[in-house]
């Protein structure tokens, strides 16, 4: 029994260590492209649901495979943009993107019985800047 528990513990420890993000630490994008809005899509580094990842799409176009503790900036044309994410469950949010504005779209996971369900939330600049500061750039 001790060997089984030790094996499970080692597997979980090794698995958690290999799921750490490896990109550059968050650094704000200095210039917003002409006639576009800047949307940071990020996912805070949390233990709960850390093994679950999902693709975030904007108006049906895949943007990023969002994993635990990562972010990526996107320059988006102004207008209503619908962001979606899906595992077994799905999430959808529409944001009115304005030229020259900065937005923070937070992705997360609610842990379910089989797999986590994605959540997408637009957060304020203050919350977004604080939470994204711990994230690493997704390549």
Automatic annotation (TrEMBL):
UniProt xrefs under InterPro entries: DUF2846
Source organism, top-level taxon: Bacteria
Record domain DUF2846: where: 34-109
Protein's name in the database: DUF2846 domain-containing protein
């Amino acid at each position: 029994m001790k060997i089984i528990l030790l094996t499970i513990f080692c597997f979980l420890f090794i698995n958690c260590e290999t799921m750490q993000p490896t990109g550059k630490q968050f650094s704000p994008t200095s210039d917003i492209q002409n006639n576009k809005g800047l949307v940071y899509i990020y996912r805070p580094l949390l233990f709960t649901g850390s093994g679950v990842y999902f693709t975030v799409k904007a108006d049906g176009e895949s943007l990023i495979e969002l994993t635990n503790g990562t972010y990526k900036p996107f320059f988006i044309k102004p207008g209503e943009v619908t962001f979606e994410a899906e595992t077994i469950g799905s999430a959808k949010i529409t944001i009115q993107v304005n030229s020259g504005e900065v937005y923070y779209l937070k992705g997360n996971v609610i842990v379910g019985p089989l797999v986590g369900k994605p959540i997408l939330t637009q957060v304020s600049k203050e919350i977004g800047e604080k939470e994204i500061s711990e994230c690493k750039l997704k390549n």
